Amino acid sequence: MSAGSGVSVPTGSLRHVLTALDEAAVGRWSRAAANALRASRGRLDELNVFPVPDGDTGTNLLLTAQAAAESEAAGGEGPALTRWARGAVLGARGNSGAILAQLLAGLADRLAAPGPAPRAVDGPALAGALEHAARSAYEAVAEPAEGTFLTVARSGAEAAAAAVREGREALADVVRAAADGARRALHGTTEQLEALRAAGVVDAGGAGWCVVLDALVATVTGTEPDRPPLARRTGRPHRHEHDGVGTHLHAPVPDAGSEVQFLLADSTEAAVDRLRAELGWLGDCLVVVGIDTPTGREWNVHVHVHDVGAAVEAGIRAGRPHHISVTALAPVQVAPALPGSRLTIALVPDGPAAEGAGELFAAEGVEVLTVGLPVDADDTPAVDRVRAAVREAALTSGAADLVLLPGDPSLVGPVTRAAAQVREEGRDVAVVPTRSLVQGLAAVAVADPQLRFADDVIAMTEAASATRWAEVVLATGEALTSAGRCHPGDVLGIVEGDVVVIGAAQVAVTCELLDRLLAGGGELVTLLGGRLAEAAATHLAARHPTVEVAVHPLGQGPRPLLIGVE
Fold first, then answer.
1. What are the structural domains of the chain?
2. Section 90-111 average pLDDT
3. What is the average per-residue pLDDT within 41-49?
């Protein structure tokens, strides 16, 4: 047995490489996957730092796989793959278990054709089913993120499909391609998520899927893939590290929320859609997976919330919840403050521009926290998530002095409240009330760790306040603004929160916006964006040649250009 996979397959019973995956092979795969996850459970638990560092991914995957394998082995209604998927959905544990269940359900949707003679699956059919399963997993997760289980599953499916397109259609070639493609993507997850990078690990759920695919390779070929052992952590699971740090003693912080999971019967797709929306409002890490059973369709619902009662009540409104489990999530682990240590944390709104903006701040030695923006002040769940994320980032940083940069008007309030909580934990925290990313960049440009903390904060605040900010935004609805009525698709020029220009062409609106801004003076214009930033720079060179211009590329989105004027 290879050191990395833990797959146990009786190779003596496999006299040749399979050309199709039949009922017996599905049964062997289900048992091999459970055995492999059992062997890998401890290492997978150790890798678990995202979305919650509660060290149970391996355990949850194993419990899900065991329930699935037992369901398949018990026989009963439907093909083997249907029974396997049904057992996974009804027995799924945790976030990772729910995603594994959805992947198996997606495979069954495509491959487990009803009828007296279950279908034998060849390479092209399996490749197509893997792609369908990956898509269905993305759809089941309310807020899919890259660098996770989903990325690994999609990459494995894409590699399988590529093998078929290249003419390598044999089942053995397809399963090897899927397993190898997933493994390559797994290694890349460390750099895709900050939590994984800080801990020096790959994604635990993705690693578990690699184990399941290796079990498939062993089932089809009779030979286990030669894999190195899953790497252990190379860093500490903290967001920021400081030189000269010895042993960290951790104290738990309460109110980390709870994981709620239940099965839902006697419901409809419409009711489940409403449930998704309601639970998405209440919490995060939402995964909803449905499966047909002999008694009707059931759904496995998983979510992390602070209000357990509200989550269960939402389930009751949607149908009949049963097998309800509530588990307290692992508390935030507080890193002791290091005397004299200082850290700036910049919040970056999630979206197409997040990666580029994060790189700008990271280049200045700033910790970056990507968050979803609250819709408004009444968006309590989103506000709570921001506050909790800021608090966790601050308390796990190990820094005694912290500067927080909100970066958006909707984040100033939640960040200020989070700062008050962190102060109660003994940290010295200051909020520089930046309302735009360009103000944050102006603040960090003057930061000086050699200054007294209070003096440094004053200098950063003055730099941010001296930076007028503006943005070009694409209207998504009809509204009455200070510049008149706008309609969906209109281009809005906004200065410090007020709409001052409405037009149809992005470049024209941008040029008028810049001219208005510079009518009041300005020596430096910072442009964050894509092609529109380049067009803006060209306009400035022609109309305002004495102004210094700095252009930084960002991804396109509903805010194609951010502007700062100093």
1. 11-230 (1.25.40.340), 253-331 (3.30.70.120), 338-466 (3.40.50.510), 469-565 (3.30.1180)
2. 93
3. 80
